[in-house]
User: Fold this.
Amino acid sequence: MRSNKRQAGKVQKRRRGRWLNRLLSLHGVLGYIFLYAPIVILVIFSFNASRFVSDWRGFTLQWYTRLFGNQAIGAALRNSLIVAGASTLISTVFGTMVALAMERYRFRGKMAFDALLYLPIIIPDISMAVMLLLFFVLAHWNLGLITIIISHVAFNISFVAVVVRARLAYFDISLEEAAQDLYANEWQTFRRVTLPLIMPGILGGALLAFTLSIDDFVITFFTAGPGSTTLPLRIYSMVKLGVTPEINALSSMMLLASMGLVFLSLMLQKGGKGGMDIV
Amino acid sequence: MTHIRSRREALRLLFLISPSLFWLIVFFFVPLLLVFAISFGERGTYGGVRWVLNLENYRRFFDPLYLRIFGRTLYIAAATTIICLLVGYPLAYFIATRPPRWRNAFLLLLMIPFWTNFLVRTYAWLLILRDKGLINTFWTGSLHMGLLQLSRLLPLPIWEPLLRATANPLTLFGTDGAIIIGLVYGWLPDMVLPCYAAIERFDFSLVEAAQDLYANRRQSFLRVILPMTMSGVVAGSVLVFIPSLGAYVTPDLLGGAKSIMIGNVIYSQFMAARDYPFGSAVSFVLMAVMLAGTLIYFRTGRE
Assistant:
């Protein structure tokens, strides 16, 4: 009798469990619909023949052809690539060097330096943008591509350092000792052992820096001058003038580019675990 | 870890850290001090800075006008964080409880919006929410027409209020709600990823142990699963709350002219009013709040 009751209770529990599980799956599906619906809508309406974005009038590619003929957008893309390329290169080299120092050495003032290294990640974009603008204005520097690159390096060093340090934390120091036992000098040890092993971390850091730089709007907005408009700045001023299908086409192209970056980062992740921990 | 013993090692350390140290001091720390110093100054006649030492800018921040904006900013950031948590935690739980090969696919699907330009993602919501946007095109277009035809077929009094409601567009754009939707959309992956990391690490045999000890589902969730994954909840909340507090793009694009947040105040002080000292003071208050939040996070993280 009693065991029967217990059995019944268990069945009821299991039923409720199944019900809860279905609810969870439903939530999962709805969550992904929420994440993708706006993006999908954006892409669909980039093929809309009507000039008015939310009024569907048939399929066209005219916004894309117009985009490729737009010189202002071409110039903005070029500026974006220059800024992202230069700031990625500088911050990857500096960030990797500082990551090596922080993981390998103990020195006076290390805590303070650690804090300084983390601050650019924590500080809100708008505060950092304002700081840099004031600095450049008071130092009488002309705002332009150079000031944008300097600003991007200032926040990217920290991100690269965090990613490379995550990789170095997994590093087995005895490998370096083994190389030195085999009469490798310090440079050879670094070049042939350390560098190849932390390479996925460095590439992961570089990819993150590139993405952050090419996507950045707020800091670029404050540190840009005439003639140094980047792609996000261009999109912003287009949106401010009015919503057009051309912006949809441009946004869809950027979406495609970021999907490419995701797959690239996945490939790097397969190259070694721990490199992309931060993202 | 090596202690610095020889001159050689000291030189190598210096070589490794000096480029970053130089960059961070000149282009980060000095500007930071500059903002701090200027926040005690005064606006010059032609928009420059007069170097005096007073607390006028901080006093001005406590004006009802700015306090109200600050309060609204806090409210929007808190609402964004809570909604992200309510949506993001179950989503993370969903992903973490799928079979391993599905898990990676779901994570990949999460990464694509995460790596997409923030401006583009905000713009997508502008398309949906604005007065001539997708929702309102349906609301005043198809839905209104449909109701009109229905009311002709079946003349009943219930159509009257519905017809009147769908005659005009809904006010979506320019509200706090629109900003919150935009922010939730922008930062949801930042909530899901740390929660997922915590739930994935969680040992589910502990739930069985709890149930063997006669805990029901609710108890085993509240007393076992949630406390054990709290690190992810806290990390996610900080990652959402901090950028929401400093948001500029979202309120600027989705908030219209009326809804402004603290980020917009800073922007207008620098770009429109040219009142650098007051803008610096507001920016410094924002940074202080943020640092306090981060310290709380590191504190709980250590426990």
Observations:
- Strands of chain B lie at 2-3, 42-43, 49-50.
- The longest strand of chain B covers residues 2-3.
- Chain B touches chain A through 83 residues (CB under 8 Å).
